[in-house]
Amino acid sequence: MTQTPVQHPADHTPAAAAPVARKVPTERTHHGDTFVDNYEWLRAKDSADVVEHLKAENAYQEAVTAHQEPLREAIFQEIKARTQETDLSVPNRKDGWWYYTRSVEGKEYGIQCRVKAQNTGDPVADWTPPAVEAGVELPGEEVLLDCNVEAEGKPFFAVGGTAVTVDGNLYAYAVDNAGDERFTLRFKDLRTGEMLPDVIENIFYGVSFSPDGTRLFYTVVDDAWRPYQVKSHVLGTPVTEDEVVYQEDDVAMWLGFDLSSDRRHLVLSIGCSEYSETRLLRFDDYDAGLRTVISRDERVLYEAEPFLLAGPAGQNTEKILVTHNRNAINSMVSLMDAAELAKPLAEQEWTTVVAHSDQVRVNGAGVTSTHLIVSVRKDTIERVQVLALAGLGTPAQGDPVEPAFDEELYTAGVAGSDYEAPVIRMGYTSYFTPSRVYDFVLPTPASPAGELLLRKESPVLGGYSPSDYVATREWATAADGTRIPLSVLRHASVARDSSAAGLVYGYGSYELSMDPGFGIPRLSLLDRGIVFVIAHIRGGGELGRHWYEDGKKLAKKNTFTDFIAATDWLASSGWVSPSRIAAMGGSAGGLLMGAVANLAPEKYAAIVAAVPFVDALTTILDPELPLSALEWEEWGNPITDPEVYAYMKSYTPYENVGALPYPKIAAVTSFNDTRVLYVEPAKWVQALRSETTGAEPIVMKIEMDGGHGGASGRYVQWRERAWDYAFVADSVGATELLPGAGVK
What we know:
Layout: E1 26-30, E2 33-37, H1 48-64, H2 69-82, E3 87-88, E4 92-94, E5 97-103, E6 111-116, H3 123-126, E7 142-146, H4 147-151, E8 158-164, E9 170-176, E10 183-189, E11 195-203, E12 207-209, E13 215-221, E14 227-234, E15 243-247, E16 254-259, E17 265-271, E18 276-282, E19 291-292, E20 302-310, E21 316-324, E22 332-337, E23 351-354, E24 360-367, E25 371-378, E26 381-388, E27 411-417, E28 423-429, E29 436-441, E30 451-457, E31 469-477, E32 483-491, E33 500-505, H5 520-526, E34 530-535, H6 545-549, H7 557-571, E35 576-586, H8 588-599, E36 606-610, H9 616-620, H10 632-635, H11 642-649, E37 664-670, H12 679-691, E38 698-703, H13 714-731
Parallel strand pairs: 33-34, 33-35, 35-36, 36-37, 37-38
Antiparallel strand pairs: 1-2, 3-5, 4-5, 5-6, 6-7, 8-9, 9-10, 10-11, 12-13, 13-14, 14-15, 16-17, 17-18, 18-19, 20-21, 21-22, 22-23, 24-25, 25-26, 27-28, 28-29, 29-30, 31-32, 32-34
Helix pairs in contact: 2-13, 5-13, 7-8
């Protein structure tokens, strides 16, 4: 096959020829349908031919986008100039210590530290974090982990979990040096600084000590990268003797664990997005083994939190708080005595604590020693409510109290709580309000509304002013009449004269919501006059459980057509020129990008698909591949169901590439990604190039040392974001800053 040299828009000099992978036809037959896959051979990760091909893709991408390098550098410098590089997090109290992370200018990674806490008898004072200052060491500061030292000489670095014993003496931390999300766990004696000889290889996210500090719990994945075992390591014993606390053999179920808020139980969570099972292990009766709250056979999606509830006479009763969807599609919160577990579910007595509502999605609930904390979503916005435990589940139950904020579009969530604390830590952000950390003083009879205490607003340098930008809620209308919420962000000086450029961003899967949040990199696009639209399409969770269910399985195409409706809204909004619209999405949002490229290529000047799930059918048809079986609940099972197979085959991007005028496309991926394998975009890009009737370049950028989140290190990640945004800005002709915009 001959190649036409790509022309640079900037200088019209021919670029290198695009790499052409050889075609090796592989037949895949299911339900009487045969698909011929010419590029499946690219899956051989250890093949020298494949590695050479990927390097050639990078070289081609570098040649095609070389003229964007000054713009990339400008955006990187803007991100850097707006970021306070020497900074530290708000200290978080756990037991007798305040824990926090420092960042230092010029260093890629954080430094984890702690200082001793005081107990004066004044609860709110004792839970007021110490005043900390960037670059200033606190008296008595101890460094737990300098991630810069740990990362030295390593191609990749990420921490997958840390834990400290209740007495504050032992520290455990898990590190990944490949980007494949397999971690090595090490232990440090914080009294001496000495490393313990215990080392545990190949664990997954999440580690916790038992309350007495003698055991550490951790998770292990199977060959398909599914967390399937929770194990217990007794310090000082061989790792080969570690106990399997529980093993989940159903390949469609995910396993995780945590400690209950009062640390009396180990709580195992087993489930998929449609039903679940919780098993409890009492630390004071460890040998009694696991106790199931509601069997998965009941097909209830729920979470359970055991705790002790004080009765009117002061006696404590073992209760279980259940957040569930039993006869409640948007979920509700109920309370039951632990003794009820001995009965069949149909005979158990539950008390309603938070009733079901069609307008409010209950996302989760937890407890402190005095209050119930509930996370809910209403009118697309996530918010927090608290109720006193006194009288819970009785006619004396009080009304929920909700911390009040003054913006229309925001995100507020619990960022941490301690069972004994009189406060809960909250995170707050909006599109143009940098991240804030609050402590919410829990309501008391003397202060029934509670009190919000601002602990920190992340500084933004470079003369940033929120008043330079505007965020509005708009609505697109889908073909079936459904109204699709949009968040529309722009610089205040953009004129509504149909001349600006636009970018539409979406995800739309797994009930994940694209919540309002501040991002320094995004300012570089807005400052260049790009109108940024976040499309809250079906398949996400913004408007409750129905919103999710109307965008999954045999309704999945709603996700794609909703995104196109959002694009059409932007094209006719009066803000932008319809010829200057780009699209962006990642992971399952990358599948979205591939689908809209096939459905409406003419609507986009450029598409950026990050770690894109574009060969979804091939992946899900092979249960041996990482995480495939866990996808059945989202897309359906095409192995056993011919209708699901035919429906997926009709939209999956790779199988539906055709003779179409594709726009500029960038597929961005990582060689070591375990969630969306690099082979998916590698095959897709080859298919696009061989079929397109257009002349626009189609490139693949592959990070050879990264995982699903790309490379590690903050400066490297800023450069990756600058690459994506420069590709977009160049493609829609929005490379120059608006008058007066940019870093001051």
